[in-house]
Design goal:
The radius of gyration is 23 Å and the shape is globular. It has one domain (about 20-50, about 60-300): MetI-like (MetI-like fold, Orthogonal Bundle), CATH 1.10.3720. Helix 5 (about 85-120) runs parallel beside helix 8 (about 160-190), helix 5 (about 85-120) packs across helix 11 (about 220-245) and helix 7 (about 140-155) packs antiparallel against helix 8 (about 160-190). It has helices spanning about 1-10, 10-20, 20-40, 40-45, 85-120, 120-135, 140-155, 160-190, 195-200, 205-215, 220-245, 255-260, 270-295. With about 300 residues, the chain is an all-alpha fold.
Length: about 300
Amino acid sequence: MKKTLARWLDSDVGHSFRNSPVAMIAAVIAFLCLFCAVFAGWVTPHNPFDLATLELGDARLPPVWSAEGSTKYLLGTDDQGRDILSAVIYGARISLVVGIVSVVLSVLVGVMLGLLAGFWGGWLDAFLMRVCDVMLSFPPILIALLMAGVGRALFPDAPTSVAFGVLIVAISLTGWVQYARTVRGSTLVERSKEYVQAARVTGVSRWRIMMRHVLPNVMGPVMVLATIQVATAIITEATLSFLGVGVPPTSPSLGTLIRTGNDYLFSGEWWITVFPGAMLVLISLSVNLLGDWLRDALNPRLR
């Protein structure tokens, strides 16, 4: 493990990371958010979704630095007496899970279709690219909103896992197109190179060439795009949850918390919506900064 880390730090990408303060700060912030989200049960002082521990008498308390604040709730409470700090960490976990899983699904679908379109060409390439053109003609949030709304209407009493699955598929349905187009363009360049021609001459099958030789050489742009798309997927999930067609209210994400706090924003309880919004901005900004750094680090023209 230490040798692998040392080898990575000595590489071009590692050297670029060590010389980029913005990338290091963004990585630390993203790691802290991910760590707190994964180990929310041990990090948070309260379980905000345990109804037995909620106290309505503590509802809408301001943060601890306010005159009416309590040291028991550092960032205050919402309208149901839930600790805002704990709710934000649990909500970040749900948002990160939905965002990461939807991006992984989009990468799997988009990379495979892009490889097939770029390597095989012909009618398959034309058909897949026309499908991409049709998908790009609709706003992504509209497609996700439509599918999530239809899923909630068809399965109103569905369990939480089904609701999460519908939301992930709704986000992935619009996310795979960019990967497919990116991989197709890179594959068209790679398939005409000498190493691919040599593999064909030696009798290697098309599928083996595509998966073993072409795929590793087109994954650089995919890694950059996937890093940036994680933030986009999280924001899309927050938007859908804010509109009421995202995750179930029993397992609120950051978008649901922002929607709940929006009802009390003009009455003075600003902390109910500001802190979930700040966490959403922090996660999205750190991931976007990492994506920008990775794009520059993998670009040979900038070395």
